[in-house]
Every structure is written in C-alpha cells, then in structure tokens.
C-alpha cells in the first residue's frame, strides 16, 4: 500500500531555492553608513549630497575590494558564467561556487577600484551547476539538473509499472512540480492530478496513520482501473549547487529510484525449496542467508511454511492497481472408451479423433510494481466446445478352435524348400523366405501349447493346437511374442522370422500336423 502520510506530511517538500532568479544567488547586501577609513560609527542622513554609496565586495568572507556599481560586478560574474558554460555545458544553470557579499556603505569620500575586483574575481571565481538533489529519509540518492529531469525520472519508474494502455491516459505524479514556489512548504496532495480522475485519500486506522495512499480511478475503453501511486519512503527534492560531473541523467536517477533502499524482508518457504534456492532467488549466497537467520546452519532442513529473513531492495515508488484481463485458453478433450463386439478382446481403434476447445477467461489481477501478486477468475465463456476422442475396444472372444483353413503364415515370401524327401531324409514342413517383413502369423485360431527354445534343431519355435485335430509349428524365430496357454486368432503375430537352431539362413520352417502326423502344408493353405 502506498505510504502517503509521507506524501502529505513528513515528505512535504520544504525546498530551499537559494539560486532563484539571476546567477549570483549567494549574495548578501548590507547597508551601513561610514566615514571612509575612519573607525567607528557616524550617523548622517544618507540623502546628504556630500555622501556617496559604495559596495565592499567579499568572497567567502574575505574582502577583495570596493566598487561604486554592484550591477557592473554582477554583469561581470554573469559573463564568466556564460564563458564557463563552454566547458561545463550550455544547458546548465551555473552559480558561483563562492559566497559573494556586497556590503553597501555611505561615505564622504569614495575610493573604489572595480578593475582590481574584477581581476581578483577573474583568478578566483569558479562555478557549480544548479541542481535538484533527491534524498530518502535525509540520505542522498542523486543529483539531476532540474526539477523537470527529476520529474522525468520519477515518471519513468511509474510508467514502467503501469498496465498497457494507461501510460497515455494518466497525468503522472509529480508533473506539476515546476509550477511550485519552492520557497514555501508544499503538500504533495495538492500536486497530484485532479483534472482527469476521480480522487480521494484513503485512511485506514488511527493506529496506522502511515497507511495513507493516493488513489486514482482511470476509465479506459472497456474497464476501470483503480491505481494507487506514492512513495515508500520520505522522499524530498531540494535545490543545491554541485560540480557538473556529479549530475545524473534521467535514466540513471530512474534506476536508483527503482532500485530503492535495502530492506529486511520475510520469505515463506514453498514446496521443494531448499536453502540454496531461497538464497539464489534473493541474490544471496547460502552463507549470507544463514547469517541473516541465526537459527539456521549449513545442514538445516527448511519446511514449507517456515519464514526466513532475506535482504531485499525496495523501490522508492509504489504503483499498485487491479485490472481485468481476458485470456483465451484451450479446453482439453475427453477420451471416451466404447466397447464393440466387432473387434476381438485386446484390440482397439480410434473411431473419432479428439480436438481441443477454447474459452475466454477473465481474471481480476492485482499488480504491485509490475509483479502479479493475486489472480482471481471472475468470468468464463466457452467459445468452442472440445470434441471427445472415442476409442472402440473389442469384446469379441477369440475362438480357440480353428476352422481347418490355414492362411499364409508370413508376410509375403515364397517356398524355398518343400515338404518331403530332402538331403537323404524327410523334410516335415516347408521353408518360407523372401518376405516383405519378418512377422510370423498364426495360420488359424488356436491355443499356444509351446513357445520357447527347442534343442532339436528348430531353435525358437511356437506350436499351436487348433483343437480340431490339427497343430501347426513355426520354427527358427528370432523372437517370440506369445506365451503358452494364450489363445490366438488367425493372422495374429507370433514372433519374428530368424535363423535360430539348425538353419541355413533367415527363414520360417512351417509344419502342419493332422491327428499326430505331419502332412504337406501346401494343400491346406488358402
């Protein structure tokens, strides 16, 4: 919350302006009536025709001479100031670094030497730049050339914190400083913008008088934004004179204002945080964090909800507001599962692809110095409904009894060795090779009665009992995808073609057995 007690009372601007007007502002003029070089006091009428007025010129309390015309010396000082601008900067307002005094005296005999005074000033006179000094609770922050640049620096920080679209609508906080008579006390509440906004000062409780802030209601095109603006500390601007190299640019002062002052803050431990992550988030080393928390040690365990002391920087300017923000968000689609007897158990297919929907969600968001501190959803409107993804899952039972019609047990390929006599013995099946891919397929429905390695030469093999007097055998597989006792349907993948066991190369050895005896598979394969 913006602390405007400091804006309204403690930080009323008591700005001394010793250099207001012409360039020679450190000037004291004192009138006396004297008797030339005589010591003592003489009383006479200053209008006496026999008396003349002269001016004793002092630089930092040291008498340097006497002149009859103060304006001539001041003009000389002004000329030197203009000459100094050539090296110091044409846009600066320069004032003498020394305090120059003119003490007027009325005398009977005037002994003056303006040339001597000018010669001494020529040798000794130096100039400083008139400046505005920014202080926080009496501590120096920086100098800028004038109030306009001070205003720009403060306004730059405020603008950085404003929501999009507001910076063109708002009359900023200290825009009217330039119209203020800085010799008088200034109540900042009188400087805040009145012409564009509904304005009120909010006071909390008598015990908490510091909690005062200036509130503006900004009417934008489609909403109202309540904006609180103020200083966090007792900030004062005073007119001073400094060496020109000490002046800051607007951006430099703005950074100092935004950086602010070092304050001790509390951090509430969140889930998954440890000492090192908390320290890193606050630009501290772990040792520095432990130093700030005497109860902690290197091996201390912190828990969710614990409060730790952390050192942070607090901006000198506070800008808080609440705005409505509408965002477009996606809506996830649901996945719906439907059962169907058109597919076997274990089989599934997507009958309708899912697609996301969309919605417009309006939030009320509270911001403080450019950071979101709270978000509440106040409205939601669906602009496009999501479409469910529908997955069909099979319920059809696989028959463990085969039809007796066998399908080709591979993906393409040809018979490379037939059933019958071969190499002086009998070949009990056919060999298939030259396939499109190496998947081995069940020739008919049935139950797996063997799935594993066979030491008799078949290598990895699968045997299926079709429960109708037929069995089929698949040998030399590189891998097996089914288990004993599993019911398989015709065309289901049993494994991958390989060259295990006694094999001359990658191929499938396929056998058909009828009532316990092998038969030529050819006539049975459709």
UniProtKB/TrEMBL annotation:
Keyword vocabulary terms for this entry: Signal
Superkingdom of this protein's organism: Bacteria
Keyword Membrane: no
PROSITE patterns, per database record: G5 (PS51109), LYSM (PS51782)
G5 domain mapped to chain residues: 316-397
SMART domains: G5, LysM
Keyword Protein transport carried by entry: no
The LysM domain, residue ranges: 265-310
PANTHER family, per database record: MUREIN HYDROLASE ACTIVATOR ENVC, PEPTIDASE-RELATED
Protein name: M23 family metallopeptidase
């Amino acid at each position: 919350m913006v602390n405007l007690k400091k804006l309204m009372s403690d930080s009323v601007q008591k700005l001394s302006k010793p250099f207001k007007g012409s360039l020679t502002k450190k000037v004291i003029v004192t009138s006396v009536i004297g008797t030339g070089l005589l010591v003592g006091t003489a009383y006479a009428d200053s209008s006496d025709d026999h008396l003349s007025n002269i001016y004793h010129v002092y630089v930092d309390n040291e008498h340097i001479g006497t002149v009859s015309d103060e304006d001539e010396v001041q003009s000389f000082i002004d000329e030197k100031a203009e000459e100094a601008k050539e090296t110091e900067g044409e846009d600066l307002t320069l004032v003498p670094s020394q305090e120059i005094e003119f003490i007027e005296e009325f005398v009977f005999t005037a002994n003056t030497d303006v040339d001597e005074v000018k010669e001494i000033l020529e040798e000794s006179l130096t100039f400083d730049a008139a400046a505005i000094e920014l202080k926080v609770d009496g501590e120096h922050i920086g100098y800028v050339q004038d109030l306009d640049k001070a205003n720009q620096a403060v306004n730059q920080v405020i603008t950085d914190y404003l929501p999009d679209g507001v910076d063109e609508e708002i009359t900023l906080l200290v825009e009217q400083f330039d119209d203020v008579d800085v010799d008088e006390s200034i109540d900042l509440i009188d400087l805040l913008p009145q012409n564009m906004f509904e304005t009120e000062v909010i006071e909390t409780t008598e015990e908490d008088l510091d909690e005062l802030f200036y509130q503006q209601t900004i009417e934008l095109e489609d909403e109202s934004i309540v904006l609180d603006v103020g200083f966090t500390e007792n900030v004062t601007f005073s007119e001073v004179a400094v060496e020109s190299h000490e002046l800051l640019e607007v951006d430099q002062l703005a950074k100092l204002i935004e950086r602010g002052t070092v304050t001790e803050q509390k951090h509430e431990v969140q889930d998954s945080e440890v000492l090192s992550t908390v320290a890193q988030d606050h630009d501290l080393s772990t040792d520095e964090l432990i130093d700030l928390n005497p109860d902690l040690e290197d091996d201390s365990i912190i828990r969710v909800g614990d409060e730790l002391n952390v050192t942070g920087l607090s901006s000198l300017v506070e800008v808080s507001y609440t705005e409505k923000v509408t965002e477009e968000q996606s809506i996830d689609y649901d996945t719906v599962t439907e059962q169907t007897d058109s597919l076997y158990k274990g089989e599934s297919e997507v009958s309708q692809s899912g697609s996301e929907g969309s919605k417009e969600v309006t939030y009320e968001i509270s911001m403080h110095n450019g950071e979101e501190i709270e978000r509440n959803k106040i409205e939601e409107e669906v602009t496009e409904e999501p479409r469910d993804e529908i997955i069909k899952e099979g319920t059809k039972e696989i028959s463990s009894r085969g039809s007796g019609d066998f399908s080709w047990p591979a993906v393409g390929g040809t018979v490379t060795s037939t059933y019958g006599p071969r190499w002086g013995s009998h070949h009990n099946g056919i060999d298939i090779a030259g396939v499109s891919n190496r998947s081995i397929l069940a020739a008919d429905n049935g139950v797996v009665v063997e799935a594993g390695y066979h030491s008799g030469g078949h290598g990895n093999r699968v045997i299926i009992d079709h429960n109708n007097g037929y069995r089929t055998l698949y040998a030399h597989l590189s891998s097996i995808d089914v288990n004993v006792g599993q019911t398989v349907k015709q065309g289901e993948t049993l494994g991958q073609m390989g060259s295990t066991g006694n094999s001359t190369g990658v191929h499938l050895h396929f056998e058909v057995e009828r009532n316990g005896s092998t038969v030529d598979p050819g006539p049975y394969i459709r």
